[in-house]
Structures are given as structure tokens and as C-alpha cells.
Amino acid sequence: MTGVHENASLLCGKDPVYYTNTIGIVVDWVIFLIGLPEVCLAFYALLRLLKRDKAAPIFVINLLLSDLIQIGITVVFIISRFFDATFRPFARARCIARLFVRLGLTSSLGFMVLISAERYLMVACPVWYHTKNTAMLSSLISLCMWALSLAYSILDYFSIYTTFSLLVFSIICLFPAPFLVVFFTATWKSLNKSMAMRHDMKHKRRVLGVLGLVLGMYIVLFVPFSSRNLYYSLKGDNAEDTEDSVRDLSGVLTSALVYLSPLIDALIYIFLRRDIRDTVEAFPCCKTPLMKLKVFQERLTDSSQTGTALQLS
Asked: Name one GO cellular component term (predicted).
């Protein structure tokens, strides 16, 4: 069967067609060159603003950590492409790197669900959220999520049944779907019923913005990938040769979408801030231009008020 490239990997056996395809090569470079600085900037700005707001979106921080794992491990695949595919050290490195890819993807899905649940509780149960939802509790939940993701990744790494492994991973990727839809719908209804939120349109847009971004990102990036893998894992390896090109191309395209998810995750940070000025002020290099702009605006306001007063007199 075409679409796989034989190598000297011991446990994971074969490289997926994504590894040698031009689309996969381009996507990996985009993830590394654009995604790495983007996620690092979002992570830095988030930590810096936490010192001022004293509010810790633990789940968003962990989501960015999972993105850093996925982006960082891309370096292994980028470098190994400069060597022969059967070169044993890089073949083994790619095999181990896929464990971290699984870890990053599964933990990312888990924290997407936790972020949606947190936004829902913030609206539906505000008293409990502000009194019982401590940083310690969120940290313990995050540790449990990391432990579950790592346990699954290790089991998947040592799995010798490729088709069964793909089936399990497809089910795991589809598992968050009902939760994300329910949390978005329930939060939207709670916001409409809440008297406090009804007049605070900015806060309402921020809450729905986070949930809408998470749900939209999951539908666009993860659903095609998991649906395609579920279909071919159930169909088995008895496909005709004419279907190989469709199988390979669909695998490359859906994998590329999933691997681009860290570029979208960083946008969640924007919806946690009150406005664009609040976001820009997180970076020290932007404070001086903002101060100069503020002084310039105040001078313009003063001069316009003075001119109006002279005309009236």
C-alpha cells in the first residue's frame, strides 16, 4: 500500500505520508516560524498580566503549554528531513517525538473542554466560581489531565495494533464534541437570563468569544481529522489501490489542520482581556508609544476645548 514510508523505527514502524508530503513540510515550517513566537508572546503577556489582575486562568496557561510541546517537537521532524529516512538516530527520534505529539494533542483537547466548563461555571454559578474555584483546585485538575494524557500517550506508543490505535485516538478526538456544544449553548442561555450580564455587553462578548473560538476551532480543525481517521480505522486496510491517493491526501490535509491548532489557541488570550489597549500594555516595549499617544490625544482634546471656548466667548 502506498502512502507510508519505510524506515528503521523500532516501535512506531512507518512514517505517515504527512512526513514526506510537501504540504506537511510547509506546515511544519509555518508552525515553527510563526506559531512558536506567537504562543511565546501570548504566554509571556498572560503571565505578566496575571501579576496585575491576580487572576489565574490556569487552564489557558496549560493549553499554551501543550501548544509549546507540539511546536517544540516539530523541530525533530524538520531536522530529520535533512537526513536519510533510514538514519537510525533520527528514525528513533521521530518515533519518540510522536509520543509527545499525542501528548500535546490529547492534553490540548482536554484543556479546551476545561476552559469551556470554566466559562460556563463563571456565568451559571458565579458565587461558587469566585469562592470555591481556587488556583489549587484548577492546578490539581490540570495535573490530572496531564497524567491521563501521558498515560494514554505511553500506551499508544507501545501499541502494536495500528488500526486499533487509530480507532481509539479517533474516539478520543470526538469525545469533547458534545461537551463543547453543551457548554456553549448553556452559557449562552445563562448569559441571556442573567440580569448582571445583560447590561455588561463587553464581558458577555468576551465569555462567548472564548467559547465560540474553542468550539469553532474544534469543529474546523479536529472534527475532519477525527472523522477521517474513524472512517479508515473502521474500514481497515482492505481498500483498493485507487483509494490510496484519496486516503493519503485526506490524511495530509486533516493532519495539517490539527497541527495548525496552536496558531489559533493563542487568540484565546485576547478574549481574556478587557480591550486591545489592555492587551498591548502587557508588552513593555509598547508602553512608551502608548504613553506618547495618550499625551498627544490629551493635547488635542485640550486644544479643541480651548478653541470651542474662544468661539463661544
From this structure: plasma membrane
Select from 11, 9, 263 the least CA-distant residue to 153: 11
Report DSSP state, residue 199. Answer: S
Phi-psi domain of 134 (left: phi exceeds 0; alpha: psi -120 through 50; beta: other): beta
56 burial class (0-12, 13-18, 19+ CB within 10 angstroms)?
middle
List the beta bridge partners of residue 15: 5
pLDDT in tens, 129-187: 777 777 788 889 999 999 999 999 998 888 756 778 888 899 999 999 999 999 999 98
How does 82-97 read in b/e, with b if 16+ C-beta sit within 10 Å? eeebeeeebbbbbbeb
Can you give the pTM of this predicted structure? 0.79
Q: 116-155: buried (b, 16+ CB within 10 Å) or exposed (e) per residue? A: bbbbbbbbbeeeeeeeeeeeeebeebbeebbeebbebbee
Cell of 255: 493532519
How far, in Å, CA of 90 to CA of 8, rounded?
A: 9
Per-residue DSSP letter, 65: H
Which residue type, as a one-letter code, is found at position 156?
D
Q: How far is Cα 88 from Cα 218, in angstroms, rounded to an integer?
A: 36
* Burial zone of 109 (CB within 10 Å; 0-12 exposed, 13-18 middle, 19+ buried): buried
Digit-coded pLDDT (tens) for 271-289: 665 544 555 554 455 555 5
Instruction: Name the residue among 118, 78, 114 with its Cα closest to residue 94.
Output: 78
Distances (CA, A) of 9 to 15, 18, 86, 96, 274: 8, 16, 8, 9, 49
Distance between CA atoms of residues 183 and 210, nearest Å:
11
